[in-house]
C-alpha cells in the first residue's frame, strides 16, 4: 500500500498549522503511514475511538515509550489489570464532586492572585503570567507535598521534560536528581499519619508501593502542567480572536462552559496520543503490523465532518461538542478533565475584570503534540 499524502508530510507542517494536511489525510488516507513520524497517523473520529478503546490491540505498554523511561512504570505506561490498579488509586480523588469540593476555592483564589498581580499594568503574556503558573500551582496543591512550592514542582517537571525530549531525540538522559528529590518528599508524606482525611498520595499508597506512588506523582505533572497551560492559553486566544465572542460570553456567562469545550475541540492541547500494535491488524484499509507505532490525531478526529458540522468553525452553540476526543476515551481517559475545565473556565470568567481586553498581536498555536501559541500578548485599559 502507498500513502502519498502521508509521504508528503513534513514536521514543520505538522507543528505549524496541521489542519489542512489532516483534512486531506482524513479523506484520502485516514490511516496513513507518515515517514517523518515513523508511524501511522489516524485522522478519522471513528477509527480514533476504536484505537483508544481497544487497549488489548493498541497498547501504551511498550519499552519505546519515553516518559516511562524517565519516570518509571505508571498508569500512563500500563494496560489491563495493572493499569486499573495504578489509575484507581488516584482517579477516584478527581471525580467531579470531589474536584469541586477540593479545588473550587483554591483555583478561584489563585486566579484572583494572578490576575490581580497584572491588572494595574495593562498588559500580560497569558502563558507565562497566568496559564503556566496556575497549572503548576494546581498540580502542586493536588500533590500536597509539605514544603514543596510551585517553583520546585516546576523545576522537577522541567527536568523530566528535558530528559523525555532527549530520549525521544535518541540521546541518553535521565532526571535522577529531580526524581530523588520527589521521592524523598513522597516518602516524608507517606510517613505522616492522617487517617481521617488522607492526602491524595497517602490514599494512593494504600494500594501501591512507594515506587509506584512516586512514578504516578510524576505522571500527574505530565498530565496536568503543559496540557492545562495550553488549554487555558488556547481558550483565551479563541475568545479574543473575535471581539464579539468575548462580549457574548460575558453577557451570557452560561456560555463560558461552551467556550471551554469548543476551544478544546478546535485545538486540543494534547493533539496526539501514541499506542503500539500488539498484533497484525487491519485498521480502515491499512494493514498495521505488530509493534508498529500508531498515533491517534485527536486534533484531526475533533474536526471530522462526519461528527461535527462545519468543523473548522468556532461555534459556541455547537450541540455535539462533547463528542470531542481532547481528553481521550477508553481506559486512559483523562481524569484531570474536570479540574482542567474548572481552571480554564475560572480564567475566562476573570477576564471580564480587564476592560477592553484584546490581543496585542496575532498569535497561533504551534506544536506537534502539545499545541499552544509560543506567547500570547494581551492588553487592556487601566482604569485609574
Ligand atoms: C489538572 C489537569 C490534569 C491532570 C491532573 C491530568 C491527569 C492525567 C492523567 C494522570 C492521565 C493518565 C490517565 C491514565 O493513563 O489512565 C491523563 C491522560 C490524558 N490527559 Fe490529562 N490531565 C490534566 C489535564 C489535561 C488537559 C488540559 C488535557 C488536554 C486538553 C489532557 C489530556 C489528556 C489526554 C489526551 C490523556 C490520555 C493520554 C493517553 O491516552 O495516552 N489532560 N491525564
What does this structure look like?
This protein is α+β, with helices and mostly antiparallel strands and 384 residues long. The protein has one domain (4-379): Cytochrome P450 (Cytochrome p450), CATH 1.10.630. Helices cover 52% and strands 9% of the residues. It is built from 17 helices and ten strands. The strands form three sheets. A five-stranded mixed sheet has the order 1-2-8-5-3, with helices on both faces. Strands 4-10-9 form a three-stranded antiparallel sheet. Strand 1 and strand 2 form a beta hairpin. Helix 13 packs parallel to helix 17 and helix 15 packs across helix 17. It starts with a helix and ends in a 5-residue tail after the last strand.
CATH class: Mainly Alpha
Spatial ordering of strands, largest sheet: 1-2-8-5-3
Q: Which stretches of 5+ consecutive residues score pLDDT under 50?
A: none
Fourth-level CATH superfamily: Cytochrome P450
Count of strand segments: 10
Backbone shape: globular
Ends: how far apart?
67 Å
Main sheet, how many strands, which sense, barrel?
5 strands, mixed
Global Rg: 21 Å
Amino acid at each position: 500500500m502507498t500513502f502519498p499524502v502521508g509521504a508528503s508530510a513534513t514536521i514543520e507542517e505538522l507543528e505549524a498549522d496541521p489542519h489542512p494536511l489532516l483534512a486531506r489525510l482524513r479523506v484520502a488516507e485516514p490511516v496513513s503511514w507518515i515517514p517523518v513520524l515513523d508511524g501511522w497517523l489516524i485522522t478519522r473520529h471513528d477509527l480514533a475511538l476504536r484505537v483508544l478503546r481497544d487497549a488489548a490491540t493498541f497498547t501504551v505498554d511498550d519499552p519505546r515509550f519515553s516518559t516511562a523511561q524517565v519516570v518509571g512504570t505508571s498508569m500512563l505506561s500500563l494496560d489491563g489489570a495493572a493499569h486499573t490498579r495504578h489509575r484507581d488509586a488516584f482517579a477516584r480523588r478527581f471525580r467531579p464532586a470531589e474536584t469541586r469540593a477540593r479545588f473550587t476555592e483554591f483555583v478561584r483564589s489563585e486566579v484572583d492572585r494572578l490576575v490581580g498581580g497584572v491588572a494595574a499594568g495593562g498588559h500580560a503574556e497569558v502563558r507565562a503570567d497566568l496559564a503556566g503558573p496556575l497549572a503548576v500551582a494546581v498540580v502542586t496543591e493536588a500533590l500536597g507535598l509539605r514544603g514543596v512550592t510551585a517553583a520546585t514542582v516546576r523545576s522537577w517537571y522541567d527536568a523530566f521534560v528535558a530528559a523525555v525530549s532527549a530520549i525521544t531525540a535518541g540521546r541518553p538522559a535521565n532526571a535522577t536528581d529531580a526524581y530523588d528529590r520527589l521521592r524523598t518528599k513522597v516518602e516524608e508524606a507517606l510517613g505522616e499519619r492522617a487517617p481521617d482525611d488522607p492526602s491524595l498520595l497517602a490514599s494512593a499508597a494504600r494500594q501501591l508501593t512507594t515506587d509506584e506512588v512516586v512514578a504516578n506523582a510524576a505522571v500527574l505533572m505530565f498530565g496536568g502542567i503543559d496540557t492545562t497551560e495550553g488549554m487555558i492559553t488556547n481558550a483565551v486566544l479563541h475568545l479574543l480572536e473575535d471581539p464579539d465572542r468575548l462580549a457574548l460570553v460575558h453577557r451570557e456567562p452560561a456560555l463560558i462552559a461552551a467556550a471551554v469545550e469548543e476551544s478544546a475541540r478546535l485545538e486540543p492541547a494534547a493533539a496526539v496520543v501514541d499506542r503500539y500494535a500488539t498484533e497484525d491488524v487491519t485498521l480502515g484499509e491499512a494493514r498495521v503490523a505488530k509493534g508498529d507505532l500508531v498515533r491517534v490525531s485527536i486534533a484531526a478526529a475533533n474536526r471530522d465532518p462526519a461528527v461535527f458540522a462545519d468543523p473548522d468553525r468556532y461555534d459556541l452553540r455547537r450541540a455535539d461538542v462533547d463528542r470531542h476526543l481532547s481528553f481521550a476515551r477508553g481506559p486512559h481517559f483523562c481524569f484531570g478533565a474536570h479540574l482542567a475545565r474548572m481552571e480554564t473556565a475560572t480564567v475566562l470568567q476573570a477576564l471580564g475584570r480587564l476592560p477592553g481586553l484584546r490581543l496585542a498581536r496575532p498569535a497561533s498555536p504551534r506544536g506537534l503534540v502539545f499545541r499552544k501559541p509560543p506567547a500570547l500578548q494581551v492588553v487592556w485599559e487601566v482604569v485609574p
